[in-house]
Design a protein that fits this description.
Helices cover about 85% and strands about 0% of the residues. By secondary structure, it is mainly alpha-helical. The protein has one domain. The structure holds protoporphyrin IX containing FE. The site of protoporphyrin IX containing FE has 21 residues, from helix 3, helix 5, helix 7 and helix 9.
């Protein structure tokens, strides 16, 4: 854990207590239990599909928070953006946990109705699944290298290249998923698509602000 990630142990507020790996575990356990409860209540393959959709959304929130953490802090420095920036690594690993649950529901939906899954695959361009799979590959590599013991064995330039490329590939995967749904159901999925696009704009604006900042700021 680096100094910027270290929780402040004298502060008793919720945001101060819910940091670091405790934050990651709390989020992943809540997502796993909450989505499983919904899936079981709905039941069968419809329940598994509901689980896929909910975990895709929890993953999107966690990923986009980590993806924009530095930019939002730079643009609007306040308690919340400071907390997000300090916890960006833990939010990123919680995203990986949420997406592990997404994968679990995908497997459950195949087991419960392979015919329905195949019908879905036939309606989806093959390239989407190629991109999804590549994104999972980056997600796994980024998660493994989020642990100090492994990160320290890598050259910083390689670590940075992996995390930078991976984060844009994952962003693209969310963009494609919500673009495809957004053009079919604009009223429901349009806002999801706008949030994904806004994250990219915020990140770019954060970069511009960093470039224009006086040296040492
Ligand atoms: C990092 C990779 C991935 C990302 C970012 C991702 C993201 C998403 C998103 C945003 C949705 C839409 C959820 C909604 O309705 O709000 C979704 C749905 C879905 N995903 Fe994933 N996904 C990924 C990988 C995969 C893979 C590899 C598969 C299957 C092999 C898959 C299967 C599905 C299915 C079947 C749905 C539709 C569920 C339904 O509407 O009933 N996903 N995913």
């Amino acid at each position: 854990m680096s100094i910027i990630d270290a929780p402040n142990r004298t502060d008793r507020s919720l945001s101060a207590q819910l940091t670091g790996w405790r934050l990651t575990w709390t989020l992943v356990i809540a997502i796993a239990i909450g989505t499983t409860a919904v899936a079981v209540t709905v039941g069968g393959v419809a329940g598994a599909n509901e689980g896929i959709r909910i975990t895709a959304r929890t993953s999107a929130v966690l990923f986009l928070l980590a993806f924009t953490a530095s930019a939002t802090y730079r643009l609007w420095p306040n308690d919340f953006t400071t907390w997000v920036r300090r916890n960006r690594r833990y939010l990123g690993v919680a995203f990986a946990g949420s997406h592990l649950v997404h994968a679990g529901f995908i497997i459950a939906s195949v087991v419960l109705s392979s015919a329905r899954f195949k019908a879905g695959v036939e309606r989806t361009p093959g390239g989407v699944y190629v991109l999804d799979t590549i994104a999972y590959g980056f997600l796994i590599a980024m998660t493994i290298t989020s642990f100090d013991r492994i990160a320290k064995r890598m050259q910083y330039a390689s670590w940075r290249r992996l995390h930078l490329t991976g984060s844009y590939v994952i962003w693209l995967t969310f963009f494609v998923a919500y673009w495809r749904r957004g053009i079919t159901y604009p009223l429901f999925y349009g806002p999801f698509l706008l949030v994904v696009l806004a994250a990219l704009v915020i990140r770019a604006a954060g970069k511009v602000k960093r470039k224009n900042a006086p040296a040492g700021a």
